[in-house]
UniProtKB/TrEMBL annotation:
It comes from Thelephora terrestris. Residues 416-433 have a biased composition (Polar residues). Pfam families: Aminotran_5. It comes from the Eukaryota. This is Pyridoxal phosphate-dependent transferase.
Amino acid sequence: MLLENLARAIEGDLGDEDEIIVTGEHEANAGPWKKLAKRNGLELRYWHATTIEGSSNPYAVAHDVNTLLPLITENTRIVAITACSNILGSVVDVKSVVKQIRAKAAEKGAKKVEISVDCVAYAPHRKMDVRDWDVDYAVFSFYKVYGPHIAALYTRFSTLPNLTPLTHHFLSPLVDKISYKLMPGGPGYELPYGVTGVLEYLLSISPISGPTSSASLKDTASIYSDPETHTRLEATFAAIARYEHTLVKRLLEHLTSEKLAKRGVRIVGEETASERREPTISFVVVNGETGSAISGKDIVKVFDAKGNMGIRYGNFFAYTLVDSLEPKVDVNDGLVRISLVHYNTIEEVDQLIEVLDEALGPPHILPALRPFFIAGQINVKKFPLEKRLRAPQQDIEDTDGHRRNRANIHAIFDVSNASDPPDNTLSTTSETTPEIPRSRRNIRESKTGNTETVSILTMIRSTCVHPITFKDEDGPIHDIRYATSGLLVSTATPLSGD
Ligand SMILES: Cc1ncc(COP(=O)(O)O)c(C=O)c1O
């Protein structure tokens, strides 16, 4: 909203030939400029993320200044960049990029170039310095920096006279000065007051000790202007960067390991850890040598079921970035993102890795069934006939004593020649009750085109986490824990004669 306000305020200061450059990233930092360009018939250019040189992973992309500079012409008026993508996690060297933009613009003869920087994904991890960077505008959100749900817009003082006031006309001539210029109405008070706690918090974790709040100083205003505050903040963020590096290293090393690469895991963003790499780590799972593609939604589901760790999937509103990835990914399912900050621990990263390995599929079912899985579903028609056994004719009973009608269980796939050893089972303490998809409705919901697919992965998982033994009068039929000896599938379609 702040950038939308800013774009509206700048609108009166634009020429017909002006051009705008935006980062192909979060829509909050692109949408307002795109709309501004459209309203005024101006040319809009995108600074897209491109594959990092030397990388064999096409999704290892970053914003490279060398692809930005050729977009600058004599008509460039606004360049809206990001300090860090909320997906890629790599820190843009804003100071250097701004310097190069200004030098290129001067070389091209551009008359007035203003640079706006989106720091929302940057500010929780690194110290902003708008003056040192030499930017005209900057935004960040306090709720991402351990504060209340409110955002901040910085404008260079000298830009203000040329901005059109957004506030009520009768507040003029006050608005012609400064404070109300970008404020459409009256200010809120509670949230801005809450913001003061952010500085206290950041100083409280600084390796350089000292007062944390203005209340503890004799001169109450001085904490903000005291150079010592800035030195201590520098130290806070340097410590954060060093510490976060250990988290990023552990997680990236796992995600880029040979095992996960074979499984199809591909980092979206920079693959190597460094202090210029934030712990915002995104990935997709494509068809690999040892497993097929798996949707972000299915991975996140496994984490949600555990309940003590939250990771998310989607495009995270960086629609343009996700949409521009090649090979294409589903822009709505998008990718999986793991977001860590300085209060996360290495132990938590290890827990995360454990759950992730589980989410990537129980290893024991994979070698035998992999070719028949499509995005987490087994393609029944592709499953070879010789591996299908007829369903048991008797009613069966699970260990909880619930009777299952044989009509609900149409086949047991014999995968006894699978190459994995039977002790390769998942073990967990989850008390999840196994759910067998019983109704025809379940099956119909999972129809994809002409291919009858059965949503089976959840069932396998639940049978693995809570083993059940199906029995008939002669004793157990199959212990589902051992998926190598039998995999039970419920399907509404006849299995023979396709
Ligand atoms: C890079 C980036 N820019 C902008 C935004 C939007 O910020 P807000 O939620 O304060 O509108 C976000 C939010 O996640 C973001 O990550």
